[in-house]
Amino acid sequence: MVHRRHLLAMGALGALPSVIRAEATDTTDWPKRPVKVILGFPAGQGSDVLARILSDELQKKFNQPFVVDNRPGAGATLAARDVARSAPDGYSLLFTSSGPLTVAPHLYSNLGFDPMKDLEPVGLVGRSPLILLVKADSPFKTLPDLVAAAKKKEFNCGSGGNGVTNHLAMEMFKATSGTKLVHVPYKGAAPALTDLIGGQIDTLFETTSAAMTHVKAGRLRALAVSSPTRYFDLPEVPAVAEFYPGFDAMTWAAFAVPRGTPRLLLEKLSLQLMKLQDDASVREKMIQSGVEPTPGSTQAKAKAYVMAEHQKWGDIIRRANIKLE
Predict the structure, then answer these.
(1) How many CB atoms within 10 Å of residue 81?
(2) Which among 137, 208, 142 is positioned nearest to 169, based on CA atoms?
(3) Of 73, 186, 210, 303, which is the most exposed, with the fewest CB atoms less than 10 Å away?
(4) How many Å separate Cα 52 from the centre of its chain?
(5) If we measure between CA atoms, which residue out of 29, 49, 207 comes closest to residue 129?
């Protein structure tokens, strides 16, 4: 006689194949309806431009709308929190930069979610360096010129705000080079660049999207870029890493989904993101927006990269004793 407990167990096991088939079918059919691409920055910014380029391409490939939903606030952490709390069904994607995933957890005591536990990176979709700038008529013509002077006396280094990427790049550079840089935070890139051009501050790390217009117009001089190698749009400008090997302080963008999203769906989206970055026309659009594509960024590679960035920025933040409320 078969015990009732055994019958229940057999019944549960018998139900598993249909559950697996249902999940596989749902994943195969994804997306069946519009997908939200949630972004924590305002329309018109560099991240927004890239998000729209890729969302338009995903819409073509999947034959469903991929709608960019701008939800700025709290350094893009509100958008990340919204996605982390959403259903893991592939219909709410996070398009994010390094800040919400790898910087904010070290800056804030209570985000209301844990980016490393509650979100799953799908694919890295672009990187861009910061540019170390001085005003056009600065006496510093090269990076060694600035370093030599800033080891002897204090120099003011601006940023777009406490804890933002260009502030952290400055802290990394300060620790690496032994310079006496004093942080001057601003409320965004525009006022910091204005004061650099006007001579109120001495130097500044800034994103390519914000800085290139001023560099090409001759208002600012680029001394170095924060990427491991030279930037394609400024081939004559050295990388900081040429003087300090291993220096890497790039901004980047990635797609992420809530933890628990089906594995097959993750793989499907990840594969398509890699294909887009191999497409010549898409690559050209990305490069024109100032972003270097990251071909071959599998889901596993993206996850490993995000974890490494989380560790790197955590070390910098603890060393500089940066805390925000």
Answers:
(1) 23
(2) 208
(3) 73
(4) 15
(5) 207
E strands, 129-212, where?
130-135, 155-159, 181-185, 203-207
Q: What is the pLDDT of residue 299?
A: 94
* Tokens standing for residue 180: 């006496």
Tokens 């955590």: give the residue: 314
Give the three-class secondary structure for 290: coil
- CA atoms within 13 Å, Cβ hemisphere of 149: 12
Cα distance between the two ends of the chain: 65
Entry pTM = 0.87
**What distance in Å separates the CA atoms of residue 165 and residue 128, rounded to the nearest whole number?**
12
Q: How many CA atoms lie within 13 A of 87 on its CB side?
A: 5
- The phi and psi torsions of 238 (rounded to 5 degrees) equal -75, 160
Instruction: Extract the tokens encoding 61.
Output: 């490939």
- Distance CA(165)–CA(245), nearest Å, equals 20
Q: Are 302 and 271 in contact (CB under 8 A)?
A: no
The mean predicted confidence, pLDDT, of the chain is: 91
Tell me the HSE value of 275 on the side-chain side, using a 13 A CA sphere.
Answer: 11
Q: What is the pLDDT of residue 26?
A: 54
As given in the structure block, the two tokens for residue 145 are: 């010129």
The type of residue at 170 is M
- Picking from 102, 125, 94, 113, the residue whose alpha carbon sits closest to that of residue 257 is 94
Confirm if 193 and 210 have CB atoms less than 8 A apart.
yes
Q: Which structure tokens are listed for 127?
A: 């990187």
